[in-house]
Every structure is written in C-alpha cells, then in structure tokens.
Amino acid sequence: MSGLCIVWVILSTLASILACTGFYLPYWIQGRLLGKADAYFSSFRRCNYPRIRTPHNAPEIVYQCARYSSFWDIPSPWWQASTVTISFGLTITVIGTLTLLAAATSFLPHVLKTPKHTRILGSLQLLAATMICGGLIMYPIGWDNREVRESCGKGANVYNLGRCSISWSSYLLVGAVVLLMLCFGLSFCAARHKPNHGPNDPLRI
Q1: pTM listed for this prediction
Q2: Which GO terms describe its cellular component (predicted)?
C-alpha cells in the first residue's frame, strides 16, 4: 500500500471519530439557564434543562445530559431535519472508513487496487461531508425555539444566538467536514496513481 493510501485511511478514521463524537455530545451551543447553570444543546440532546413539577411551582433545573424523549419532542423541525441529515452523513462516513480499513488489512484488496473503487469511495466521502455540512446549516434556523430563548435570551432567533455561544462539539463536526473534503481529494489522487505491483503486494497502488 502506498503512503498516499495510508494517509487517506488515517484521515478517514480521524474524520469518523470527530464526526461521531461531535454529533453525539450535546455541546453545540452554550447558554445560561435561569442564571444558575450552563445549558448546552445539540440537534437532539441537551444538558441541564428546566422541569416544572406542578403549575404552581417554580421550574427546577435537571442537571444531566439526555436526548429528547422522542424524535417529535425535539423543539424545532429544523433540528429534526438536522438530526436526520447528519445521521445519514455519519452512516456514510463510518461505512466508508470501515471499507478502507478492510482494504488496508487485505479483506477487500480490490478497493485500493481499482481506480473506479477509490473514486466511488471518495465521492461517498464528499456526499457525507455535504450532508453533515447541510445539517449544520439547518441547525441555526431552529434557534428561535422556546428552549433556546430560555437560555440565550429573547433576542435568540434564526442565525442569532443572543447571549449564547458556539461550543466545542460544533468545531469537531466542522473539523470532520474539512477532513472528509481532504479525503475526497486524496481518493482521486490515489485513483490517478500508477500501480506498481510487486509479486507479494496486491494492495500496492
């Protein structure tokens, strides 16, 4: 296997790790709930949220991270769409990475041996990057929901976080998109690389 393919496999693996971590952890945006606790949100999970036991009691803060009870409890249809879109992008990313790892360990040697296959894998990584990016673009459209305004102030609106700020999980997802775009470029470089087969090296490209 050439050094180019090794770099491609490593970057693909890193992109998958960043994308999955950034998607699952709810630290996309950070606000302040009731002036008492930091609140965090992603498209389908949140940390530290209010709960009212009876109509006559003041809300109390639940200090935990959890997903919404069901998909339909997600407070914005844009967040629902973001969740679905990024999920599909992650699925493609992980499948592509597992395929590359299988090829690197001789289970699927033809993948890195055939230019057509490397281009297909690279195109899938580009599609994954596009879907993750699309989900990230949809997410701020839902910043006008009630839960965000409780933590970010009444000024929170579409693409306006009010008093909130972007948190570190968002940067992990952006980093994954950048790496996937780089992997797309590497796949086409690998496809153009002339084979130089040795008698015992079926994976060399």
Answers
A1: 0.86
A2: membrane
Q: Which one, of 13, 19, 10, 202, lies nearest residue 128 by Cα?
A: 19
Kindly state the tokens that stand for 146: 């009630």
Instruction: Identify the CA nearest to 136 among candidates 86, 93, 87, 94.
Output: 86
CATH topology assigned to domain 3-192: Butyryl-CoA Dehydrogenase, subunit A; domain 3 (1.20.140)
The structure tokens listed for 163 are 């008093």
CB 149 within 8 A of CB 32: no
For residue 53, what are the contacts with CB-CB under 8 A and spacing of at least 6?
A: 60
- Residue 58's pLDDT band, with cuts at 50, 70 and 90, is low
Instruction: Tell me 201's DSSP state.
Output: B
Q: In which residue are the tokens 């972007």 written?
A: 166
SS3 of residue 92 by DSSP: helix
DSSP β-ladder status, 60-67 and 29-33: unpaired
Cα dihedral: 94, 99, 104, 105 (round 10): 100
Q: Compare 19 and 2 and report the one with higher pLDDT.
A: 19
C-alpha to C-alpha distances, 57 to 51, 53, 54, 63, nearest whole angstrom: 10, 7, 5, 18
